[in-house]
Amino acid sequence: MKTYSKTRTIGGSLVVTIPSSIVKDERLKKDEIVEIEIKKVKKDYFGALKEIDSFTEEDELKEQLEE
Q: What is the model's pTM?
């Protein structure tokens, strides 16, 4: 089963919480050993700059004059 979870710090260690739906589906119990594969997720910045307008003709002319 696959899920995404955020790391947290407890003491000097990083901790990841397993969602309850996976705990139920996999019938996990306290003190069981499980295998976890770690892969960093690439950040997606799509839509992060939605307040910025498109370039205007004036912006393009300013850029050419600065060169």
A: 0.54
